[in-house]
Amino acid sequence: MTDRARTSAPPPARPHRVVVLALTGLLPFELGIPHRIFGRAKDPAGRPLYEILTCALAPGPVQTDADFAIDVAHGPELLATADTVVVPASYELGPVYDEGRLTPELRAALAHLRPGTRLVAICTGGYVLAAAGFLDGRRATTHWASAEHFQRLFPAVLVDPEVLYTDDGDVLTSAGVAAGIDLCLHIVRCDHGAAVANDVARRTVVPPHREGGQAQFIERPVPRPHLASTAAARAWVMDRLHEPVRLTELARQEAMSVRTFTRRFREESGVSPGQWILMQRVERARQLLERTEMPMEQVAREAGFGHAQSLRKHVRAALGVSPTAYRRTFRATLPVPDGPSDEVRPRP
Length: 348
Prior knowledge:
It contains 15 helices and ten strands. The protein is of the alpha/beta class.
């Protein structure tokens, strides 16, 4: 390659900048989630896809809810440079939590946000976005134990207490603690495709997508240890997603009546067997759309939808786009695998 060719090559694009706002009383675990998830996302050449920085209302030490503080170098001015801002939970939100209003310092900090900045809240970090008016008229969630209080304090917010996270375009919220991982993986998946998100999940040793919603964590009687789970039935059906599956067949795998199996399944997964199977079929279709050149009719058969019309209906309902649009968006963003392949192959 000549010097002229080298100098004329376009510079690599700047990584998407994620700024995490550290507030007094924050939970260290949640503070680390954006750094861990976004920081592991790489392009096919191994370059980071995100730049993650942390700021506070003022540079200096920020007390956590643990027995230590963290030293934050950046002040709120950093928010003006962010493409995405993440607000983790804090146990010391003061009037934000008690009265639904921002402190003068927090209001001044959020004034640095540029129009169009993507806003993300983890757990009770949603109180900050709601108090600032960013969630008015929007669907949002928070920890199930705070959902009722959150709704009373912010009646203009459409609170869904049963989901792990919500995505309303440029404003996203998650339920408590570990649901922040689910949300950040969802963002990576939306930005760069399922293959990149799955790679991050493998490296973090977490599932790329958790079954069910927050409903499965809301306080309810815990199934007695001696009662069998429905795990064997779930494993059985994963090998048969391309086939019609009857509820009676599922119940038979666990030697249960249909009624008992359905109740137990919902207790364990938070959704009905039919909803769970539909979720798995959509996920299988996503993998096939991203990783193969199969015609839509074949994708529909392999994923268990039978025909392309049914595939289009369910993929659009779940993902908000057609299968063709999804393939066009994500087919070109696959990374080069650097470990054992989990490529989805068609059945023999």
